[in-house]
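Q: What structure does this chain adopt?
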Amino acid sequence: MSDNFFELQYLITDSFYFEVTVHEHTYEQSAGICYQSFYEYISADNISSILSISLLTQLMMRHNVAFTELDITNMKRVLDLSDKINYQDSLDEHEVEYLEEYLELVKNKYKELTSKD
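A:
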Protein backbone atom coordinates (compact mmCIF):
# COMPACT_ATOMS: atom_id res chain seq x y z
CA MET A 1 0.00 0.00 0.00
CA SER A 2 1.45 3.37 -1.00
CA ASP A 3 0.31 5.04 2.21
CA ASN A 4 0.96 3.41 5.52
CA PHE A 5 -2.11 1.36 6.40
CA PHE A 6 -2.05 2.02 10.13
CA GLU A 7 -1.18 5.67 9.61
CA LEU A 8 -4.25 6.20 7.44
CA GLN A 9 -6.36 4.25 9.93
CA TYR A 10 -5.09 6.48 12.73
CA LEU A 11 -5.65 9.70 10.76
CA ILE A 12 -9.26 8.83 9.96
CA THR A 13 -10.08 7.70 13.49
CA ASP A 14 -8.34 10.69 15.06
CA SER A 15 -10.09 13.10 12.71
CA PHE A 16 -13.48 11.53 13.42
CA TYR A 17 -13.13 11.90 17.19
CA PHE A 18 -11.37 15.26 16.97
CA GLU A 19 -14.44 16.71 15.25
CA VAL A 20 -16.66 15.33 18.01
CA THR A 21 -14.57 16.25 21.03
CA VAL A 22 -12.83 19.47 20.01
CA HIS A 23 -15.28 21.02 17.56
CA GLU A 24 -18.32 19.54 19.32
CA HIS A 25 -19.84 18.19 16.12
CA THR A 26 -22.29 15.32 16.21
CA TYR A 27 -21.13 11.90 15.05
CA GLU A 28 -23.16 12.42 11.87
CA GLN A 29 -21.42 15.73 11.19
CA SER A 30 -18.05 14.21 11.98
CA ALA A 31 -18.64 11.39 9.50
CA GLY A 32 -19.53 13.93 6.80
CA ILE A 33 -16.46 16.02 7.54
CA CYS A 34 -14.27 12.91 7.35
CA TYR A 35 -15.82 11.93 4.03
CA GLN A 36 -14.82 15.37 2.72
CA SER A 37 -11.38 15.41 4.36
CA PHE A 38 -10.44 11.96 3.09
CA TYR A 39 -12.19 12.20 -0.29
CA GLU A 40 -8.89 11.66 -2.13
CA TYR A 41 -8.53 8.26 -0.47
CA ILE A 42 -12.21 7.41 -0.68
CA SER A 43 -12.40 8.09 -4.42
CA ALA A 44 -9.08 6.45 -5.36
CA ASP A 45 -10.59 3.01 -6.10
CA ASN A 46 -7.72 1.18 -4.42
CA ILE A 47 -6.82 -0.30 -1.04
CA SER A 48 -6.97 3.17 0.53
CA SER A 49 -10.60 3.44 -0.59
CA ILE A 50 -11.44 0.09 0.92
CA LEU A 51 -9.81 1.04 4.21
CA SER A 52 -11.27 4.57 4.36
CA ILE A 53 -14.86 3.66 3.63
CA SER A 54 -14.77 0.48 5.70
CA LEU A 55 -13.33 2.28 8.71
CA LEU A 56 -15.79 5.17 8.44
CA THR A 57 -18.63 2.66 8.15
CA GLN A 58 -17.40 0.92 11.28
CA LEU A 59 -17.17 4.22 13.19
CA MET A 60 -20.66 5.20 12.05
CA MET A 61 -22.03 1.84 13.17
CA ARG A 62 -20.34 2.18 16.56
CA HIS A 63 -22.14 5.49 17.14
CA ASN A 64 -25.49 4.63 15.53
CA VAL A 65 -25.14 7.17 12.73
CA ALA A 66 -27.91 6.94 10.13
CA PHE A 67 -26.68 5.76 6.74
CA THR A 68 -27.57 7.70 3.61
CA GLU A 69 -27.98 6.43 0.07
CA LEU A 70 -24.45 7.71 -0.64
CA ASP A 71 -23.12 5.63 2.26
CA ILE A 72 -24.88 2.56 0.88
CA THR A 73 -23.45 3.24 -2.59
CA ASN A 74 -19.97 3.58 -1.10
CA MET A 75 -20.39 0.32 0.80
CA LYS A 76 -21.33 -1.46 -2.42
CA ARG A 77 -18.34 0.10 -4.19
CA VAL A 78 -15.98 -1.09 -1.44
CA LEU A 79 -17.37 -4.60 -1.52
CA ASP A 80 -16.94 -4.69 -5.30
CA LEU A 81 -13.41 -3.28 -5.03
CA SER A 82 -12.45 -5.85 -2.43
CA ASP A 83 -13.44 -8.59 -4.89
CA LYS A 84 -11.41 -7.02 -7.72
CA ILE A 85 -8.25 -5.97 -5.88
CA ASN A 86 -5.84 -8.57 -4.58
CA TYR A 87 -5.12 -6.62 -1.40
CA GLN A 88 -3.70 -9.66 0.40
CA ASP A 89 -0.50 -9.40 -1.66
CA SER A 90 -0.10 -5.68 -0.89
CA LEU A 91 -0.65 -5.79 2.87
CA ASP A 92 1.00 -7.64 5.71
CA GLU A 93 -1.00 -10.24 7.64
CA HIS A 94 -2.05 -7.83 10.41
CA GLU A 95 -3.29 -5.27 7.91
CA VAL A 96 -5.22 -7.98 6.08
CA GLU A 97 -6.85 -9.07 9.35
CA TYR A 98 -8.00 -5.53 10.13
CA LEU A 99 -9.24 -4.92 6.61
CA GLU A 100 -11.14 -8.19 6.44
CA GLU A 101 -12.77 -7.48 9.80
CA TYR A 102 -13.90 -4.07 8.52
CA LEU A 103 -15.10 -5.59 5.25
CA GLU A 104 -17.19 -8.16 7.11
CA LEU A 105 -18.86 -5.34 9.06
CA VAL A 106 -19.51 -3.44 5.83
CA LYS A 107 -20.91 -6.53 4.16
CA ASN A 108 -23.28 -7.25 7.05
CA LYS A 109 -24.43 -3.63 7.31
CA TYR A 110 -24.92 -3.43 3.54
CA LYS A 111 -27.07 -6.56 3.61
CA GLU A 112 -29.08 -5.17 6.52
CA LEU A 113 -29.68 -1.85 4.77
CA THR A 114 -30.56 -3.32 1.38
CA SER A 115 -32.59 -6.38 2.34
CA LYS A 116 -36.27 -6.15 1.55
CA ASP A 117 -38.39 -7.37 4.44
